[in-house]
Amino acid sequence: MILVVDAINKHLHLEVLDEMFQLRARVFGDRLGWDVKISDGREIDEFDRLNPAYVIGLDDNYEVVACVRALQTTGPHMLADVFSDILQGEPPLRSATLWESTRFCVDTDRLTMSGRGPGSVSRATCELMIGSLEYARESGIEDIITVIDPVMNRVLKRSDNAPCDYIGATVQMGKTKALAALLDCSEERIARVRAFADITGDVFVNEEEFVNARALRKPKQTSCNILAGEVVKYLTEQIDDATNVEELDAALALTQHMLGSDLHETKSIARGA
Question: What is the pTM of this model?
Answer without folding.
Answer: 0.79
